[in-house]
Amino acid sequence: MMSTLQTAASLVYLISAICYVLGVHLMRSPKSARNGNLLSGAGMLLAVIMVTIELIVQGKITAMGWLVLIAGLVLGVLYGVIKARRVEMTAVPQLVSLFNAVGGGAAAAIGIFDYFHMPTGSSLSLVFSIPVLLDIVIGGTTFSGSLIAMGKLAGKISGKPISFPGARICNFIVIIAMVVGAVLIIGFPVTPWYLGLVLLASLIFGLLMTLPIGGADMPVVVSLLNAFTGLAVAFAGFVINNQVLIIAGALVGAAGTILTLQMAEAMHRSVANIIVGGFGAGATGK
Amino acid sequence: MSQQLFTNLAIFILSLLVGFEVMSKIPATLQTPMMSGANAIHGVVVVGAFVIAAEANNVALYILAFLCAFFAAVNVAGGYTLTDRMLHMFDRPKASKNDDGGDK
């Protein structure tokens, strides 16, 4: 029974992955774009139905597990759909940024979950700890970075590049903290504080990365963070050994990167100039 | 390197290559919908929320599973709804003159 289920699941996930690729393909032209999005949505529905069947057949999930899962899903779907229906068309980029932030947050939550799921004091294999780290670092960075990008696009945070004395020292400290946390996670037995350090450093890193960038460059930044979230989701796929997450995440990571380059090109800017310009000396050529 | 990691790594790298290839030059009007559409696709992380919810067995893990399910559901449901709404606007006016070939 188990292996029949796994075979069926793998096949269904493969079909849904094909839907995403074809969906992106169709979305490149205005005539077929809407169908492309619907096809990719159909693939998503298929994956969700399959994983629901898996949970029911396996019967491992507790009643409390069902409760939190269904409550989270229902609230999330309601919130997302209402937001998407009501938003003014001029406010679309910041909503995309919000959706991107929560995607990164969800990916990071999977990494955190799996780390906490390990018994404290047990040691991790490299094969497990590296994807967990990448998942949490990238997911945490895009979560906070996208929220700042959203604030800037919505005008809730000043659209001007925000920089402060000692910003570079802060960046340095945060990166050191991240590296130290990473070494502790990879080389030492499971201890929640190590993970907390890495998570906190990643969140601050996202803030420090996005704050110094001007509001006009934000759409490019949102697109870049979107590609990052794709990668975080792919690493979450490594963590839970689920191929549909790996395929879809990597697809978005790569396609999002190309899209980012094209958007920057349309603005006659280079991505490196936008990101490093904010990070570096501060005097961005504008 | 374990068999499982190798398989996953191969899938990851090949999917990256597919992503690079499938994305050719797209018209400027489609850049925002495409960004939103790609954003919706990484909402597949919702599958991960199901998987961890099945493993949860203490309060902290239930909270994480709830957060993950909520975040992922916002991402996936909002993402597809918003993208469809944007693309719906291409339906009514006669589709712009941009060539639909796309592939170069």
Name some characteristics of this structure.
heterodimer, A: 286 residues, mainly alpha, 10 helices, 80% helix, globular, disordered C terminus, B: 104 residues, 4 helices, 72% helix
Describe what you observe in this structure.
The complex is a heterodimer of chains A (286) and B (104). Chain A is mainly α and 286 residues long. Chain A has helices spanning 2-26, 30-58, 63-86, 92-117, 126-154, 167-187, 192-210, 218-240, 243-266, 271-279. Chain A is 80% helix and 0% strand. Chain A has a domain at 89-279. Chain B is mainly alpha-helical and 104 residues long. Chain B has a domain at 30-94. In chain B, 55% of the residues are buried. Chain B: One of its GO terms (biological process) is NADPH regeneration. Chain B: The transhydrogenation between NADH and NADP is coupled to respiration and ATP hydrolysis and functions as a proton pump across the membrane.
